[in-house]
Design a protein that fits this description.
410 residues, alpha/beta, TIM Barrel, Sulfite Reductase Hemoprotein, domain 1, 8-stranded parallel sheet, 5-stranded mixed sheet, 15 strands, binds iron/sulfur cluster
Length: 410
């Protein structure tokens, strides 16, 4: 019997902008972004990082354009990049114009620090003429001082007003090719600002929790903010802002979309039980070893590592492939069906070998190649373990009798 997949909220309808060949909004797949940490003037170093981000799942990459050398670097990087590039511009209108000249696919402007209306309109007009979109990147930490004063701080209303003021300048020169972000490091503030903005404009939204910090706390904060909004149908492109190698940002973005069913799985999804007193092996050690070995192969599989054969194969029956530990053995299972029983020390190696065969030959073929008697041997192990652990260690029967005597005697 197949179970229906729970559905997230319907995605918000937006207009679409094209960042190079990547559509953003208008029903397009949600894209993942990250940002390079190299000096943009270092062409080879930046390109190497862009390729690493692309490999980890980034669809769009942003580079800073903070000085003339950076703009010159962009002119060399753009034609060699595997993904469209966004130039990040703060304070200097000349850098925005230089980045457009370098051929970037999008600009990010911060209304908090590029404030002169005539300069904003100049950039918008130039972007309009070149057919290049702009992201209005509002940031709670660098909000326009007038708005900060008006609202007494960086409130959702202040962030939204900042974005809409910039939109109004753009509209004056007939430029509407815009996506917007209203980021904050405070997760509830960020969520409230995006919800409010989503009700007032039809532009695609770029989601992010800014300055989320190092993992794991940074990952948790970013996932809480971005994931909440995506589940509500809000958001068209996402970026994790982590104090870490940006490859982690791209990977996290891709993994979040895969976890929400918003992107087709391309890589490994390793699930593992949290372990408990029933575990027959060091689940953490086995899971880490399996993750390391399988990550290197980059196979599009869901693989389970379970600590015991009593509950493992059943609980992980949706996984493509899995291994469960029992009495110095490993039960290798495909879609919950045990196909082989292997020695404990060979668990990881057998799991990896089977993963490769599964991808090459398919599930049906590998189920058909199951070792004869594997299910029966597994069932015997399961029963033996249940009997071992079936001892009433908690003396529950004795306790129940005592309770009955107490209650009966009162
Ligand atoms: S699979 Fe077994 S070891 Fe892992 S948490 Fe469940 S009962 Fe415990």
């Amino acid at each position: 019997m197949s179970r229906a997949t729970p559905v997230l909220s319907t995605r918000r309808q937006t207009r679409q902008v094209m960042v190079g060949a990547i559509p953003v909004g208008g029903g397009a797949p949600i894209s993942v972004q990250s940002m390079t940490t190299t000096k943009t003037a270092d062409v080879d170093g930046t390109l190497a990082q862009i390729y690493a981000l692309y490999g980890a799942g980034a669809d769009i990459v942003r580079c800073t354009c903070n000085e003339e050398e950076a703009a010159e670097g962009l002119a060399q990087i753009v034609p060699r990049s595997p993904v469209p590039l966004v130039a990040d511009v703060h304070f200097h209108v000349e850098m925005a114009l230089a980045a457009l000249e370098a051929g970037v696919a999008c600009l990010r402007l911060n209304p908090g620090n590029l404030r002169k209306p005539e300069e904003i309109k100049l950039v918008a007009a130039e972007a309009r003429d070149r057919g290049v979109p702009i992201r209005i990147g509002v940031n709670a930490g660098s909000l326009h001082p007038d708005l900060y004063k008006k609202y007494g701080g960086a409130t959702p209303e202040a962030l939204v007003e900042s974005a809409k003021a910039e939109l109004a300048y753009f509209a004056e020169v007939g430029f509407e090719d815009v996506k917007i972000s209203v980021k904050a490091s405070n997760v509830p503030l960020m969520i409230a600002a995006y919800r409010m903005l989503a009700e007032q404009v039809d532009h695609p939204l770029h989601l992010g929790v800014t300055e989320a910090g190092p993992p794991p706390a940074g990952l948790v904060k970013a996932t809480a903010g971005i994931g909440t909004l995506l589940a509500e149908g809000i958001g068209d492109t996402i970026r994790y802002s982590l104090t870490a190698d940006p490859v982690e940002e791209a990977r996290a973005g891709r993994q979040l979309l895969e976890a929400l069913g918003l992107r087709e799985r391309k890589g490994l999804d390793l699930i593992a039980c949290p372990s408990c007193g029933r575990a027959e092996v060091d689940v953490i050690g086995v899971a880490n070893a399996a993750q390391e070995a399988l990550d290197a192969l980059n196979l599009p599989l869901q693989v389970a590592v379970m600590g015991c054969v009593v509950n493992g194969p059943g609980e992980a029956r949706e996984a493509d492939l899995g291994i469960a530990a029992g009495k110095h053995k490993g039960h290798l299972f495909i879609k919950g069906k045990v196909v082989r029983v292997v020695p404990e020390e060979a668990m990881v190696a057998e799991l990896v070998a089977e993963a490769e065969k599964l991808v090459k030959e398919g599930i049906e073929a590998r189920l058909a190649a199951a070792e004869q008697g594997a299910e029966a041997e597994a069932e015997a192990d399961r029963r033996a373990l249940l009997e071992d652990r079936g001892v009433d260690a908690n003396r529950s029967q004795e306790r129940i009798e005592a309770i009955r005597r107490r209650v009966g005697g009162s």
